[in-house]
Amino acid sequence: MADGSEKNAVVSNKKVIFKDYVSGFPKESNMVVTIDENLKLKVTGDSKNILVKNHYLSCDPYMRLLMKNQSTEIFDPYTPGAPITGLGVSKVIDSRNPELKEGDLFWGITGWEEYSLLKSSEGLLTIQLLVNFYFYKMIKGMPGLTAYGGFYEVCAPKKGEYVFVSAASGAVGQLVGQFAKLMGCYVVGSAGTQDKVELLKNKFGFDDAFNYKEEPDLNAAVKRYFPEGIDIYFENVGGKMLDAVLLNMRVRGLIAVCGMISQYNCDQPEGVHNLMSIVYKRVRIEGFAVADYYPQYSKFLDFILPYIREGKIKYVEDIVEGLENGPTALIGLFNGRNVGKQVVVVASQ
Amino acid sequence: MADGSEKNAVVSNKKVIFKDYVSGFPKESNMVVTIDENLKLKVTGDSKNILVKNHYLSCDPYMRLLMKNQSTEIFDPYTPGAPITGLGVSKVIDSRNPELKEGDLFWGITGWEEYSLLKSSEGLLTIQLLVNFYFYKMIKGMPGLTAYGGFYEVCAPKKGEYVFVSAASGAVGQLVGQFAKLMGCYVVGSAGTQDKVELLKNKFGFDDAFNYKEEPDLNAAVKRYFPEGIDIYFENVGGKMLDAVLLNMRVRGLIAVCGMISQYNCDQPEGVHNLMSIVYKRVRIEGFAVADYYPQYSKFLDFILPYIREGKIKYVEDIVEGLENGPTALIGLFNGRNVGKQVVVVASQ
């Protein structure tokens, strides 16, 4: 609950400011941590505004795409000079918005700063569902729902199918692999360190896993793990891995495209060459976005909470304390430094 | 009907022999026309063999792929020193196969030669359906069924949708565009000459068409014809056109991949770069092969024959007389010399 003493108080507000559009690999110096003094904890401006305190911030691969000066159907780019934004768990301090009241907790897009003045409650749609749910868990919502929608709805898996997951120890990949095992599939994951490979095999129960950085020939590697081919590829990385997978799909196989993190730092994405496999093997490739599954959030929780309680679904998070460490955590996503879901704790209380 | 006088006669047999695997653009000199003398018109060898006289041969883009030393789920490559093969309309001269008898006409894979000794009736599945159908029309079967299956089954079009067809004056494209108009879609086609563009607009009833060879910026061209984006792309060419289309798809648009002829002469296919559009726009890409729709051949004929009779579906063929002109006709496909379906007449009687 909001702390009454905070209201009307004057505080400082630490922020992670986006400096300018990024070309190539992002660096911590593309962001700068600043402090605004004298923020009055009282909502200002028009009748929809909401002043929130940010508690947990999520580091997600798509954030790299917002560092390019390019609008897409899903995202608008970051604004140079303003804080970066991302999914977070926040608490309402003061509100002129009839949808949200002081003390409400919510999960949605917020600023990378201690306090944010949000202009509307749009995009914070899940708040009603989440209010009674321990808020620290909420941040798992996005990757969980992404894995759930992407695997069960897009992939429509069947028992015994051969499933390959790239970036498999990541926030989404680790869940997809476990969902696939629950379904009775054969599951192999790829990751970028030996530790992550061990995690996939020993903690998340993948049938097998490999370190793609140690494979000089990705096509040969994929063929070695799938001598009979792949029914379902859960695509998180794109580029060379996609090319190798295309050569190893089974007839009528499916590629569910969640993201292509290997391409996010490229000014010009790598070319993918083996697309004729789509015809040879009647492959279906389908993109999706987590927002497509927001209406199923409640169904997702009903599905996953019992598994979590029984310990049948495991989840690894990589927690960084302090907003000032946020830029390092975010950049770490793109060189694979994180193990599991990367979270920044701004304020645990 | 088979001519009784042919049986037991001795004839010469002209053949188009495949010389060796081809790298880069194919040339007429990759094939050689030879004549075997003293072919006895009597079936020889084991009990499934069928001796056939070939009447019409079809030139199809996939044949370029068989000139590479590469097996796929759909095709095995040509054998150097043996005749090339392709879809044709043929007549049984003599048979030891219980499935086929002297005088039967059929449509299926045969050799590029005057007479072929086929080893089985496998792949000639449509023969029962076609026996009573004027055989010259049969050769239309494959592109027709490809267009039908690909458009109605894979694309599942709706009235008013924006449809783009590449290689639109080709055997499949011209039909897809007309099917789309019958469905009430807005249809634009691309082709490689101004004459073909006129054909698309004036004969096949496309809403608009353009010559891709005259467009320095394909993305700008596609955007000009589809300012609101593309719902359905019927893909026949791949490469740079696919990259341009990916940038111009509408959210939840569909790309049905029939072929990628622009890539067939490349030893290493061009890279396609804009695949992140699959995520941004939740695009679905789906490959298919005409063989998937063989069971629907009868339904297809019921659908299309009334339209053909009423003149509501038009069809342009490019006919070459004489097997010796076959290599030129086939090579012409890859530089766009043909207008409409390319057919080689080996023997009209």
UniProtKB/TrEMBL annotation, chains A, B:
Domain of life: Eukaryota
Coiled-coil spans in chain: none
Domain Oxidoreductase N-terminal: from-to ranges: 14-120
Annotated protein name in UniProt: Enoyl reductase (ER) domain-containing protein
Span of domain Alcohol dehydrogenase-like C-terminal: 171-304
GO MF assignments: 2-alkenal reductase [NAD(P)H] activity
Keyword annotations of the record: Oxidoreductase
PANTHER family: ENOYL REDUCTASE (ER) DOMAIN-CONTAINING PROTEIN, PROSTAGLANDIN REDUCTASE
InterPro entries: ADH-like_C, ADH_N_2, GroES-like_sf, MDR_fam, NAD(P)-bd_dom_sf
Name of a matching Pfam family: ADH_zinc_N
